[in-house]
Amino acid sequence: MYKILDKVELNKDVDLMVIEAPLVAKNTKPGNFVIIRVDNMGERIPLTIVESDANSITIISQKIGYSTKMLGKKNIGDSLEDVVGPLGVPAHIKPVKTLVAVAGGVGAAPLYPQVKAYFDQGTKIDLIIGASNKEHLILIDKFKDIVENIYICTDDGSMGEKGFVTKVLERLLNEKSYELAIAIGPLIMMKNVVNLNKNYKLKTDVSLNPIMIDGTGMCGNCRVSIGGKTFFACVDGPDFPGEEIDFDELMERQKYYKHEEHICNLMLGEKK
Ligand code: NAD
Ligand code: FES
What we know:
alpha/beta, Elongation Factor Tu (Ef-tu), domain 3, Rossmann fold, 3 domains
């Protein structure tokens, strides 16, 4: 069993938890994730390891479906059934001097360890961070310590500039040049960031989070088409170069799971 050592509600939909898992923590690299089961009947939940120390890992979870809502009900002192990891291929931190990082909503959580790794090697980083509103912006204070400039935007204008991250990105691309971009957030955001960057001949790394089952490359559920070839996000990713990803196929498949999620929420008695 894996004890919850700390829990912070970042906003009404998103929790940060510190979980005692020394063997996972010891081997963690930026870009790795874990698969969690809340109890012995629980679904498997893949979550990026945001930070780790000698004894624990930090995860951030959006209470969006049945299982993540069950996770959200757990408190400090409670234990989780399984924490399997570290899984996935660690992010390939490239030797670049300048980077523009783009975070969309809860995508800021998987972005943080990568931005930190670039900071640690001396890369100068501009961060664009966007969310639906002020309450849904996360990790701003932590990012402030490791980036040169931070550009905040919200869909409703409640903090920073009003509009999507791509609006700010386009302005920056006209003013400055970067060696690399990383974008993590909703699929549509990553698709639009990749397409915009292509116009400026700027390569973009993204992180994909399709539904995972086994997390070991056996079930095929997390497959993604890149340049006409099939990859599995769990064992080949979750980070990939964005240019040739078939985002439309991924978004089509995500619609199916949104329907499943709706059914689960009805089972939980929510009228959404
Ligand atoms: P959200 O839907 O509120 O969007 C966050 C931001 O993304 C917006 O504020 C906007 O700036 C940008 N965005 C949204 N639509 C856009 C568009 N059409 N064009 C350009 N920019 C756009 O985000 P949320 O509710 O926090 O959801 C986060 C999403 O990120 C979820 O869909 C989740 O599956 C995904 N996610 C991805 C990863 C990953 O590793 N890739 C990890 C966690 C979450
Ligand atoms: Fe089964 Fe990736 S989760 S192949």
